[in-house]
What does this fold into?
Amino acid sequence: MKNLLSIICIIVLLSNSKQVSAQPGYKVINQIHLEGDGGWDYLSVDETTDRLYVSHSSMALVVDLKTGKQVGKIPNTNGIHGIAVVNSLNKGFTSNGRDSSVTVFDLKTLEITGKIKVTGKNPDAILYDAFSQKLFTFNGGSSSATVIDPKLNKEIGTISLDGKPEFPASDGNGKIYVNIEDKSEISVINSTTLKVEKTWSIAPGEEPSGLALDNETHRLFSVCGNKLMVISDAEAGKVVTTLPIGDRCDGVAFDPSLKRAYSSNGEGTITVVQEENKDQFKVVETIVTQKGARTIAVDKRNHHLYLPTAEFEPAQGNGRPAMKPGTFVVLEVAPVK
It folds into this structure.
């Protein structure tokens, strides 16, 4: 009997140990100090070259992820929003909202090699779709997407959308999903025909910004301005569930091996959502970051998260607080081992 009890106790302890090790736990492990002042938007991890590209005011800053140091920049990107990397062409592309253009640069030298004037107004998010080998900008000022041939550095089409597009996600098989912010919808673009195939409401979510995709379970994660993460079935085109997140979100990232979605909230938190299966999700942690850290990227190899932010002066009246000069950083958040 004692031996049986001992075996049972060992099994229980091992079971509890596995549960504890599977639990999330994150902390800010580094602040990567970068040059310049002014606003910021998207950032992107290039796992092929171990680089992080960060939009900042009128330039893209380049960080070596091995050293955590800035190694270069792409200047004169007027009102930069996003960065897309095409390693097969040795090209990078930035979307520049203020002059409605796309800057082309060499991934090895970081030298600017071209500039593409787009007909869409205020190109915001930018996405390379490997399936169609096309580049897409999503234009907040004209409710459209511009289609570019990245080999020729040439605009080849325009797709009209139902409203103001925000962040997109590709399934790698010919479908591109994009949040429509002012209509609280998701639209699906066929990247071959360049037609919108489907649009659905994500109510009760309002003003969706960041979007991420679990391509295995076909679940889309939209983070919304009314402090909700809306999870949709990408195939059926319907909402599966909603979960609470923090305030002033603008980005979301998904880690496929951990099955976790991360909402970056400008209030200074990250909401961690665990996908238990394709229909069950739960908030498992709220990570404290820093005020202003509202966009996010994930390195899927080591599960590290990156968020740009800065320190701010006290707010004056109802206006936005001014950024303190010389305080721009990228926070590196890592799992606690």
Remarks:
- The two ends are 37 Å apart (CA to CA).
